[in-house]
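Table S2 (continued). Query chain:
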Amino acid sequence: MSSDVHGRARPQPAQVGPATVASLPGKSARVYGWLAAAGIAAALAVMIATSLAAASWMGPPLSMPSTGPPFELASWHVQLGTVAAALWLAALVGGLGVVAGLVAVGRGARPPIWLLLTAATVVIAILTVLPPAGSTDPQDYMAFGRMVVLGHSPYVMVPGDLVRLHDAVAKSIPWEWARFPTPYGPAATVEQFLAAKLGGISTARIIFWLKLWNSLAFGAVAVTADRLLRSDPRARLRAHLLWTLNPLLIWQLIAAAHLDVLAAAAGMLGLLVAARPAARPARRPRLWQAFAGGALIGVAADIKITFVLFALGAAWALRRSPASCAAAACGLLAVILPSYAWFGPPAIRSVLEKGNKVTADNFYQLFSRAQHGFLMTHVAIIATILVTGVAILALSRLPFRRTAEPAIFAALALSTAWLFVWQYQLPSYDAMIICLLILVPASWLDWLVVARLTAASIALIPGNPQPVTDHLEARIGMDLLTITVPVVLAAAVASLIGLCLTERRRSRGPSQLAPEADLA
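Corresponding output:
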C-alpha cells in the first residue's frame, strides 16, 4: 500500500503471481485432464475385466454360492501371462493418470465433483461384488475367520490345519501362508469371524462380506475428506484423485480386499475426533472427544499394530492438555487391552514376530545380495535406526508442518518415515499415508507417494501364487521385483531425505509458490 497526498492508504493494482497464473484453467489443464481421465479409466477397465475372469487365473479356487453376490464369468478364460502384462500396463497407466490429474488440478482444471464420485461409486460397487483379484490375502482372512467359527484361535491354529481337517473351505486355502498364524490384531479377527458367520461354508461369500466392509470404509474416508475440504475446490479434487478415484488404491483395497483400509478409516477418524479441536485456539478439546478419538485409533491399532503411530500423532497434538491426552490414551487402551487379554499371549507374539522378514521388492537387497550377510541379518535394527532418523527429519522439515493440523501432520510424518524405510512393506500399506495426505496441502510428497505406490503395485502383479509360465514375462517379473522397483523405492527414500533437508532453503526463497501451484 502507498499513500496519497493526504496520507491515506492507496490500494495498488492486483499482482498476478505464479499461484494466480497456475489457478487459471488453460489448454494445458484440459490436456492433462483428458490424459488423467484416459489413464484412470483404462486402468480401472482392465482391473474390472481381470476380476471378472479371476476364476481362470487366480488361485486357489473359490466355492461359489448358488446365487450371488459375488458373481463371476466362469466361461471367460484368460491366460495368466496375459493378465500379468495387462495389469502391469494398467498400474503404470493408472499411476500416470493420477499424476496427470494432479497437474491438471494444479493448473486450474475443475471437473465436476459429482462425475468423479459417481464413477468411483460405480467402479467400487462392481469390484465389491466380483471375486477377489490381485492377492490371496482374502483367502487367508477367510481361513482365520473360519477357525474362530469352529472354536479355534487363529493365533494358535494355522490355515493348513483346516486342510488337514478337510474343512469345507480347505480347497481355498493358499499355500504361501498355510503354516503361519494370523499376523493381525484382535479387531481384524473379530471382523473376519463375522464375515465367516455370515458367509457360511462358501469361501466366496465370506470374502464378499470382507470386501463389502472394505468398500464401506473406503467410502467413509472419501466422504469425510469431501466434507472437510468442500470449501476448497482444488484440495477437494486432489483428495479424490489421491484416494477416491485412484486405481492403484482401488486395486489394492477393493479388488484385492486388503484390510488396511479398515484401519486407515478408523485411524483417520480417530485423529479428527480426538485432536482436531486442539488445532483451534478458541476450541478446547473435550475429554469425551479425546476418549472417543483414542478409542477409534485403538480400533485401528487393534487391526494392525503399526497404526499406533496415529496415537503418537494424537499425543503430539494434545501435549498441551494433559487431561485430554490421558483421556485419549484411556480410549486407546480400553480397546486394545481387553481384546489382547481375550486372545492371550499368542496374539501378542503373533503380531510382533516379523523381525527380520523382508518383502521381495525391498530396496535393502540393492546393497547386499547375500541373504545371510551382515546387512540382511540385521536389517530390522538398521531399518529401525533409519526410520527414527527420517522421522525426526520429516517432523521438522515437511513443507506443510505449519499449515496442517498438528495431529494429522505428526501422524503423517511418522507414517511416511516408517513406510518409506521399513524393510517389510506392501502397496496396500500406503493407505496409511494417503488417508492423511489428502487432508494436508499439496506438496512434493504427493509425487513420491504416487511413485512408490505405482512401483510397488507393479512389483506384486498379478498377485497369484502360481508363477507366470512364459519365460519372458517371468524374467520381467523377477527383474521388477529385484532391481527396478527396489531402485524406485530407494530413490523415493533419497528424495524424501534430500527434499526435507533443502525444504527450509526453498521456503526462504524470493518466490514462494502456493502448494497447488507446485503441482503444476
